[in-house]
Write a structure and sequence with these properties.
Rossmann fold; four-stranded parallel sheet; alpha/beta; 2 domains
Length: 344
Amino acid sequence: MSSTELERVASRQTLMPIPVVVDACVLLRNIGYTLRKGWNGALVESASSSYTLSSGVVLFATKQVLEEVEEHLPRIARDAQASVDAAFQAWNEVFLPRLRVVDLEEGLVSDPRVGAVRTLDLDDAPTAALAVALAPCILLTDNRKHFMPLGLPDQPVDEIAVDIHKISELMTGTNSAVLLTELTGLGIIESSKKIVSALGKEGAALVALLLIGAAYLYWRSEPGSRFRKGVASIARDVGPPMLEAVAERISLSEKVAALAIQPANDRQSAFRDVAQRLATGQTTMTTAAIARHLNESGYRFTKDGNYQTLVRAWLVANPGFFELQRGHWSLGYHALPRSTEAAA
């Protein structure tokens, strides 16, 4: 089923946070860092794992990037004076669980910027297409020259990674993953009020810090605006030190958002709409939930049939969507561990 069989008749605002798309060069450099130092760099340390958004940061890469990294792992091992087995162990145990691989068909993304990147380097076109599909998003690459048509910021990748890591700290801490799993959508605001009233002022401060990351999910939405005002009010009550911490985190979020690749100028496609939802809001959705979302957003098929059945066929036909189990979908997948023999 072709992606053009869904036509949009209504507009919809995209939720945040901003996804992070990584190129092979950045991943290889981070693997080398892990091998040399014995600990992880800021980028990989920030990333969520196991199809979650627990840290507020999700790393995405194309299937082509996955293959390129594995091809060059032996070289990275030699440069770091480590064994090839050690390189694959780091890749399998540290990076793959934190990296969502998207098998993207470029034809699903119509944007002249992708064509411009393809002209500069054919191999980089899939990564450009993924970045445009998830825009607004952050694209991290050491090869700025080939991705200039996307309007990359003139800022070192490592500096951006450090800022992303600081933002991820908002979503971590005691019980933060559980808290943010249960308090979703508008329920975050109402439920947090109950928690604050039960925990008192100090509890309110903790909840404020934990939930600023959740507010980032809704950064450009009306609920997000109301939430930020509420957090600022709590911070003023707690005192200047807390206020400064909250202000710093909000400032970092705005700073990273300003570096994002901008969305395509053409109308939103069904693929991009669902991909963005799975990248920034719910990391897994059922077929029924996706069908409901598309229907409510005004997407219509050009042929007759049961809407949910047609949506499932559309999902199956789009390799960027991965069926974790029957009827449960994610954007991309965590690749299985690789062996040195398989790479050879």
